[in-house]
Write a structure and sequence with these properties.
Number of domains: 2
Number of helices: 8
Radius of gyration: 21 Å
Distance between the termini: 15 Å
Length: 344
């Protein structure tokens, strides 16, 4: 079986996590990816709206392998009278999954402020009745800045205003092979794709076709790969496989997606991936994800591109919260990709 450089993969995951990239804030992480791809020897193209494409080589019709590097997060909706920030979600962030999280608020003039997502009011010792209500961004959740501000005017004087981006602290940790962090979805998969690129760069295996790596930056708001380069025949999304009571996905395995909340995935393409996983000795399962899951591969279909689409990824628990997968799940995802791009 193809063996991933685990140290490189985990280091790249941590490097990507260190770059705040709430959907819309893509410039810094895109530059990082461009520099790394070109360091590995691959030519790159930057999409006008954001997104990076690296050509990994090979000839013939094109397989696009996509992983996204945008994160769910928050945006300042309004400055409250007491100087706290009313916020709205970017992507599928639920309030109960971010209460007490540390954040960074990016003012438009370049200043960055630390803060915390809090209940409002925020102490059961003084407001037990209010705290019994479910957290709601519109009613009782706010961001409190780590600044001496007690009024809207004082907060505005800091340069903070409506529309400013807010990034959540990832809190990466590695424990007994388990990878725990926010944004395993999907920076862990982007790190796997970088590990694939490193293998190609180091060993230069012959590819069965032309392969491009497509790092998208708008997946969380459903238009990451709405545009594709000409010549793409197939698109393979590498994204997390949520675990749960009715799922076959497992944190130590790679899942091959059969259907999500939007569409069934292309049967022929999916069967090819199952065969490749078996040949590679990758520990894999097939799974179906409903009611609220979709991938960038779906977006290309919705946009009208005449491509076959499929999706794979490591089993991951607590999706869109403090997520967890296992290094074995990343390894099995890597092995499947390598087998497929070399042997078809």
């Amino acid at each position: 079986m193809f063996e991933m450089d685990r140290e490189y993969c985990l280091k790249q995951f941590q490097n990507l996590l260190e770059i705040d990239s709430t959907t819309g804030m893509y410039e810094k992480i895109q530059k990082y990816l461009k520099d790394e791809a070109e360091r590995l020897g691959f030519p790159t193209t930057e999409c006008r709206k954001g997104g990076l494409i690296a050509n990994l080589g090979g000839s013939g019709d094109t397989l696009a392998i996509t992983a996204h590097v945008d994160d769910i997060g928050l945006m300042v909706r309004h400055i409250n009278a007491n100087g706290t920030l009313s916020v709205c979600p970017i992507g599928g962030l639920h309030p109960y999954y971010c209460i007490t999280e540390n954040v960074r608020v990016y003012a438009r003039d370049g200043r960055v402020y630390a803060g915390t997502v809090c209940r409002a009011p925020g102490s059961p010792h003084v407001s037990r009745e209010e705290l019994s209500a479910a957290p709601d961004f519109d009613k009782n959740v706010c961001v409190v800045l780590d600044e001496q501000t007690k009024s809207a005017a004082e907060t505005r004087a800091l340069g903070v205003g409506t529309g400013d981006y807010i990034a959540l602290e990832p809190r990466f940790t590695l424990s007994n092979g388990y990878v725990k962090s926010r944004f395993v979805d999907d920076k862990a998969c982007a790190a796997v794709l970088l590990a694939v690129m490193k293998e190609i760069s180091d060993k230069k295996p012959p590819l069965s076709r032309n392969v491009i790596a497509y790092f998208s930056v708008y997946e969380e708001i459903n238009h990451g790969t709405a545009w594709l380069p000409e010549g793409v025949r197939d698109i393979l999304a590498v994204d997390i496989a949520p675990t749960g009571p009715r799922q076959t996905s497992d944190e130590k395995k790679v899942s091959i997606f059969c259907k999500d909340s939007r569409y069934p995935y292309h049967l022929g393409f999916t069967n090819e991936l199952c065969a490749a996983a078996a040949r590679a000795g990758a520990d894999y399962v097939t799974d179906v994800f409903t009611p609220a899951y979709g991938s960038d591969a779906d977006v290309s279909i919705t946009a009208g591109w005449d491509v076959r689409h499929a999706a794979i990824g490591p089993g991951t628990s607590n999706s869109h919260g403090y997520e967890r997968t296992h290094i074995d799940g990343l390894q099995n995802t890597y092995a499947l990709i390598m087998e497929y791009i070399i042997n078809g």
